[in-house]
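#struct-pred

JT: dropping the chains for the assembly here, can someone run the whole complex?
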Amino acid sequence: DVKVTQSSRYLVKRTGEKVFLECVQDMDHENMFWYRQDPGLGLRLIYFSYDVKMKEKGDIPEGYSVSREKKERFSLILESASTNQTSMYLCASSTFWTYEQYFGPGTRLTVT
Amino acid sequence: SQQGEEDPQALSIQEGENATMNCSYKTSINNLQWYRQNSGRGLVHLILIRSNEREKHSGRLRVTLDTSKKSSSLLITASRAADTASYFCATEGLIQGAQKLVFGQGTRLTINP
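RK: done, full complex below.
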């Protein structure tokens, strides 16, 4: 079975802190994605990557950056966390040839 | 860039009844997917239906697609308490060589025992 893991289920950070969210997949998938999920807004794509060291902006990239140094790992970075970045963050991966995305369990981030 | 929109936003039924959720979208698609999300967890892929298919079954799930109306429905038959979850439809676009999904806001389904 495909497994996507995220480094933390719950995270509490202070305003202005630099935050790293890690995602690892074990199925050699080319594509990896970061979403945030907020009530009433659904899932919104922050960044995605279709290859090592490649990244593309999604719908809401402002305030975020990403890193993909290895194929299996995709990191989301909040350079200076703000309270409006309090959200559920979901990582997903997929192969180039299939449309199904596999999701991690999510990280619920609270910025105080 | 919301593509799919689910209807209703919330649905509450008795165990054993059938549950129907609808999804409408705006642009042409190659396929449409449905996902389930249990409370506070990640999404799980349920079923994919291609644009040239009208109906697809998987266990107690039945998905229909009407491309002329740009709509899809998900039917869960003989519902169980474990079906309590949020259900999302998702349509795809190919951007920069990567398949990108656009999700609706979901239908919150509650199965009452």
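JT: nice. The interface with chain B takes residues 4, 30-31, 33, 40-43, 45, 48-50, 56, 58-59, 88, 90, 92, 94, 96, 99-106, 108 of chain A (CB under 8 Å). The longest strand of chain A covers residues 31-38.
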